[in-house]
Structures are given as C-alpha cells and as structure tokens.
C-alpha cells in the first residue's frame, strides 16, 4: 500500500473496511480535541500568569519613564529580542511541546488513539498543532496586551513603523513558538526524561551558543528569530541589534539574509515534526 | 450502518494468529517462541502474574512489537496496517481516560476516529451507551464516574464500531455483581454472533462463565490451547474423576470396574459411584451404550475436576 494512498486514505487495493483514516482527518479530530484539552489544563493558567510579566514591564515603563528616555520602539525591540525571544517563547513552547505526546504516553491515554485506524503521523501532527496553537496564542495574546499598554493614551507611539515592528515581532514570536514546540514535542516523544533535555536545549544551548559572536550562532533557533526581529528604529540601543552588529564586526561579513532565516526555521520545524512522527511510529505502548 | 465499517466475518485467513512469537526486555524473556490461533467465539487468555499473559495480550493487540516471530490479524501485520483497527475493538485494563470529556463525547470521538460519517455518530453512540447500560450517565464527565462506570465506558468505545475482533483486558474489574452479569452476557452474545473475542483475566471463575475455550500461558510459553474438557482429557497425570448417582450403585460400580477406560472405582460418602478415567471424552461417549446394554440407570453425572481451576492447577501447579 503506497505511502500516498495511506496519507489520503484512498487505500489503493485495500478494502474500505481496512483503510486508515486520511492524515488530515485524523490529525484534525485529534488536534481539535487536544486543543480543547490543553486549554483546560492548569498549565495554561500558570503560563498565562507568566505571560503577564512583560505586560507589567510595559506598565512600569508607562508609569516610570516620564522623560521619554526609552522610546516605544526601543521598548518593543528589547521586549521582543530579550524577553520574548529567547526566553518566553522557549518557555511556553517547552511547557506545551514536551507534554504534547509525552503526557499522553505517560498517562496511558494514547492507547485510545493507538487502537484506531489513525496513522501515527496523524496522531503526532494533531497533538503538535494543538500544542503549537496554544503556545502561539498565549504569546500573541501577551504581545497584544503589551501593545495596548504601550499605546493606550499614547498616540504619539502609534507610528506606521511602530505598528509594523509590532506585527513583525508577533509574527516572529509565533513562528518561534511553532519551531520550538515541534522540537520539544519530538523530544517528548523520543526521550525518557524529555523535560531535562528540553531545559538544557532551551536555556543551555540556545542561550549560550546564541550569544557567542561566531558563526556557530547560526546553529540556534534564537539567532534566526533575532535576525528576523531586527528593528532598525531602535538602532544599537536594542540588544538584539547590538548583538547582530557585534557579530558583523567580528565576522567581517554580510548579515544572514532574513529569507534564509525563515527557510532555516521552517525546515527545522518540519524536520522536527517528521522526526517526532517517526519516533512515535516506533513506540510501544506498555500502559 | 456505514459500508466502511460493516463487513461479513469471512476470511481465508485465521482471524488472529501468533507465529513463533517471542518478546524479550533486556535479558528477561516475557514470551518465548509461542504460537496460537484464535478464531470466532470467546477465548480466555489465562496465566499467573508474571506468566507473560499481559505481554502476549499486548503483542496480539498490536500495542508492542514482537522481538521475533509475527502476529497476524486476517493474515496481515497489525503494526504495519493500522487500517485493520477498523475491525478491532480494544478495552484496556488501565483506567486512564480523557476524564474531562463526558461519556458521550468520548465514545463519539472514538467513533469519529473510526471514520464513521457524521450523521451516524450520534445514534451509534447512543446505541453503544445503551448496550452497556450507561445512557443515564452519558452526559457526565468521565472524571466523575465510578470504577464500574469507567469499565462500562471502556466497553462502549470498544464495541461502538461493531468490530470483528474484540480484545478485553480484565473486563470485569471493579464491577458490581449486576454489572458483571450484564457484561458476561454481552461477551457471550458477541461470541455467539461470530465475533472473535479474546478475554484476558487472572480470575478463573470469570473466564469459566464466559467460555470453555482457553489459551493458557505459563513462564512465557503457551502451555495449552483449546476447549477445557479436551485439554483436561490430555492430562494423563491426573485422571478425570466422574461421580455418578444411581439407584443401584454397587452394581454400577462393579460393572464399571471391569471397563478398560476406567482406572478405578469407589463409593463416596454420599453413595455415589466415583470413577477415575484417563480418557474422559471416550468414557462419556461409551457410557450411554454400556448403561443401555446392562440396563443400568444413572440419575446424575458430575465431573469433579473438569473445572478451569482444576485444569489450571494440574498444568501449572501451585
């Protein structure tokens, strides 16, 4: 039975009564119910509380920066480059990504998906997309609140450039959530203690290697996210811009084009997703 | 019923087959070179704790991969052809479920994942819940269910798509006597309807109420397979003991003592003739002819050690 026939559920010569569900159908229903489940968990409330921290930072800026030393653009650039990327995006993605499959296996509930004519890829895809959606929604919601706090009664900040920078930041942070969640979901599927590995990756490899002014930075997700988030209005007073400028001076070469960073991030997400599906296919259910 | 789900139970292949299956975990051999064939009807899978029963059950239901050998369902490997799960229902022992869903939502989701068209979901879900007598609690969250209700909802999701093969792992766990009776009747109904039902249990009386067809596993090997009486008949170390109540016990005893199939005869404290035979099936076949020829009457015949417990004890030992 060809892989395409399995993917589409058309089955080739296999009788209808023995065909697996099309990938999209299986992934949709598992994803829908998984999203509803993840939106109910206490984890969501905890992460929601963490997402309020940058909002409080914006509030503090509004209250304390009376003389305008820090512009709205600079605040947004540093929030995006230091707080959201790499910290909050990785944290939220870790919280939902590692448990996307891992928790179902640990609790034994994956057995009910396992004993259905649903491809293992569809199970992984459904759970992954649900986790990505929840993570990205939390981050986008947090950024929306930050935008509201920065601009409420402060219409001078509402320039076209600022709005553009905000929308780019939201897009990059959400892309980051999708990429990180895919990586952590693969870890959750394949490793016995995925949380430790995920923490080491997110706050060890990404943080340390992502700040070294050398080409090795390009092996991190955070580098490519920062590369996309570059906010020219903030200049080198923005930490991300400062880091990129430092790298340029050390390497004496042109910066990595943004299109290349988009491709690298998308490829990473897709490869992590495929790896996770492959690992799930090999899994054995003992509970 | 959707044509995708319903199909007649006819196949050129055995329904469920294990061919020289082994499973090891590191140095521990859980199942050792075991072969068996399961067909339509109810089959009990028996074994002590640690005998390999659970591992064999998981191998047969496609949850784990054999280290060696193969498990075939309708001639195909289940782990490769997940589409076969359309024809399989699985009721696990574990109580883990999506507690936040109502019973109805859970069964509906399971039916959706079988590819059943939308309009059929609600009526078939309702029918499955009725079948396990859980309709009244269908709209409560599973997290609020008792142990017995959780067991029933597991049965409902296993049966809702009218599978040809049903795996039941300790199906009567936590059930009250009324619910036990209902589920046993349901299992027997399924077997009588030509479904292939494999029941795993360590509680022999429960299996005995459902079926006389067993697979007995011990130390990772299939020790015996088939009808309990036929298995019993092959256990020559322990002759079958038959008690006969008759109006002329001494004459009956004297007659039986001379028969080739009878190893020994005595009278018990209730005045019954107790005969020991090494070939129970042949003995029962010959007995009516003997009684007619000798004009002997017998009021009641009872096999004292044809029970599953006795067979289990003789084969496995204490």
Comma- or semicolon-separated keywords:
heterodimer, A: 287 residues, mainly alpha, 12 helices, globular, B: 318 residues, alpha/beta, Rossmann fold, Alpha-Beta Plaits, 6-stranded mixed sheet, 4-stranded antiparallel sheet, 10 helices, 14 strands, 34% helix, 26% strand, elongated, disordered N terminus
Task: List the SSEs and their pairings.
The complex is a heterodimer of chains A (287) and B (318).
Chain A (H helix, E strand, L loop, with lengths): L2 H6 L14 H16 L3 H9 L1 H13 L7 H36 L2 H5 L5 H32 L8 H31 L3 H17 L10 H9 L9 H13 L6 H24 L6
Helix pairs in contact in A: 2-7, 4-7, 5-7, 5-8, 5-9, 5-10, 7-8, 7-12, 8-9, 8-10, 8-12, 10-12
Chain B lengths: L15 E10 L2 E11 L2 E6 L6 H8 L7 E6 L2 E2 L10 E4 L11 H10 L5 H14 L15 H13 L5 E5 L7 H16 L3 E5 L3 H7 L2 E6 L2 E7 H6 L6 E6 L3 H9 L4 E6 L5 E5 L2 H15 L5 E4 L4 H9 L2
Parallel strand pairs in B: 3-8, 3-9, 6-7, 7-8
Antiparallel strand pairs in B: 1-2, 1-4, 4-5, 9-10, 11-13, 11-14, 12-13
* CATH topology heading of the largest domain in chain B: Rossmann fold
How much strand content do the residues of chain B show? 25-35%
Strand order of the largest sheet of chain B: 6-7-8-3-9-10
> What count of structural domains of chain B?
2
Name the quaternary structure.
heterodimer
Number of strands of chain B: 14
Kindly state the percentage of residues in helix of chain B: 25-40%
**N-to-C order of helices and strands of chain B:** EEEHEEEHHHEHEHEEHEHEEHEH
| Helical content of chain A (DSSP H or I, runs of 4+) | over 70%
First and last CA, distance of chain A: 30 Å
Summarize the structure.
Chain A contains twelve helices and no strands.
